[in-house]
């Protein structure tokens, strides 16, 4: 999903159609030719939206298709510990990626269904609406169900019955790779974000093995620090099933700058983890914003678009894209 090749292709299309930079700027609604010129020269870091405008201006109708044809990046937010910020991050980073112009699917793989509830009130989710059907449904039809549409994203929701997967999957031959197989069939997404339950059970393994990359949320407290060896051991096990699984980012969460425990943990984690994967700028502890957004059933950037919490989420989303080698930045 690197965008470098896309720019060359679009430029070639412009040249082949005999369009000047001025004509492209005019068609895209830009003030002058310097914007398309900078995109072509790659001395700017264009947003996906700018690229889309350029693509429309040169008549590249299949531009989105050309991104679509590359397989999606599947990000599982893994940490066996609960309360570390997995579900919040999937909701908010997923939303931010959608805002940047990416097509996003969220998968709630936790029977507690926090992600599902935090994105709106779903009272009547059936087991068939969840990923259950993709892993334990009819043998010859192991596909994800039709997603729900929430805040510009798609969502495979969850409900309590999904807990059955932890009980039933160990009895299924090659069961742990079923979600990975089902995702191969889900076309049309740039990013798929999976929110697993806080455990080392089958659902968490199924979700992690389906990923191309793991994002590991870590809070700046004792729980965060003490959990790292177990996280790394689990990653080692997941790699036995999916050797190319990459650790994309340690997402530092719930940082309370006023306490020495948090300050010390932040230093310790940053030093200790950077050899394994990039370590994000911390998301700060903001109980009010997180509680209220959850109660409203909204992602933080919807609930409080110009707040500090939303700003931090943009920062870590950009860091995540950089870690993934995707060359776009956030449009201010
Ligand atoms: N940066 C933060 N500041 C304050 N509260 C947070 C923050 N991130 C998450 N929370 C809250 O902490 C709790 C656990 O977060 P959650 O995302 O559910 O973690 P997990 O999915 O790992 O269990 C939730 O109530 C959530 O609203
Ligand atoms: Mg959770």
Automatic annotation (TrEMBL):
It comes from the Bacteria. GO terms for molecular function: DNA binding. InterPro entries: AAA_dom (IPR025669), Cro/C1-type_HTH (IPR001387), DNA_Partitioning_ATPase (IPR050678), Lambda_DNA-bd_dom_sf (IPR010982), P-loop_NTPase (IPR027417). SUPFAM superfamilies: lambda repressor-like DNA-binding domains, P-loop containing nucleoside triphosphate hydrolases. Residues 10-57 form the HTH cro/C1-type domain. SMART domains: HTH_XRE. Pfam families: AAA_31, HTH_3. Coiled coil: none annotated. This is Chromosome (Plasmid) partitioning protein ParA. It comes from uncultured Chloroflexia bacterium. The lineage of its organism: Bacteria, Bacillati, Chloroflexota, Chloroflexia, environmental samples.
């Amino acid at each position: 999903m690197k965008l470098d090749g896309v720019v060359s292709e679009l430029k070639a299309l412009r040249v082949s159609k005999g369009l000047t930079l001025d004509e492209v700027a005019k068609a895209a609604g830009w003030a002058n030719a310097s914007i398309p010129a900078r995109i072509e020269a790659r001395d700017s870091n264009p947003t996906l939206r700018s690229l889309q405008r350029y693509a429309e201006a040169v008549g590249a109708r299949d531009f989105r298709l050309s991104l679509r044809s590359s397989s999606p990046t599947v990000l599982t937010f893994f940490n066996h510990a609960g309360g570390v910020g997995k579900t919040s991050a999937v909701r908010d980073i997923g939303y931010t990626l959608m805002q940047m112009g990416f097509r996003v699917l969220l998968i709630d793989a936790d029977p507690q269904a926090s992600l599902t509830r935090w994105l709106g009130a779903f009272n009547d989710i059936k087991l068939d609406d969840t990923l259950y059907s993709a892993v334990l449904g009819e043998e010859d039809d192991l596909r994800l169900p039709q997603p729900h549409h929430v805040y510009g994203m798609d969502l495979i929701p969850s409900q309590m019955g999904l807990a059955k997967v932890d009980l039933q999957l160990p009895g299924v031959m090659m069961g742990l790779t079923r979600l990975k197989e089902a995702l191969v069939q889900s076309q049309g997404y740039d990013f798929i974000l999976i929110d697993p339950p806080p455990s080392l059970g089958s659902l968490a393994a199924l979700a992690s093995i389906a990923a191309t990359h793991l994002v590991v949320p870590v809070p700046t407290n004792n729980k965060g620090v003490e959990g790292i060896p177990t996280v790394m051991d689990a990653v080692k096990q997941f790699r036995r099933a999916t050797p190319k699984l990459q650790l994309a980012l340690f997402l530092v969460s719930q940082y309370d700058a006023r306490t020495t425990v948090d300050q010390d943990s932040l230093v310790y984690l940053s030093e200790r983890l950077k050899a394994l994967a990039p370590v994000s700028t911390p998301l700060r502890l903001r109980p009010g914003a997180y509680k209220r957004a959850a109660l409203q059933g909204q992602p933080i950037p919807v609930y409080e678009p110009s707040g500090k919490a939303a700003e931090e989420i943009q920062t870590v989303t950009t860091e995540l894209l950089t870690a993934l080698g995707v060359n776009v930045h956030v449009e201010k």
